[in-house]
Amino acid sequence: MSEIAKFLRTVPQLRLLDEVELTALSEAMSEVEYEKGAVIIEEGAHNHAFHILRSGRLRVCRIVEGREVALCDLSPGQTFGELSILGDQRTTATVRTVSPSRVLSLSMDDLDFVLRQSPVAAAMFWQALARDLRDRLVETNEVVRQYFEVNRALVDNPTFREAYAMCTR
Question: Which side of the chain, N or C, has fewer Cβ within a 10 Å radius?
Answer without folding.
Answer: C
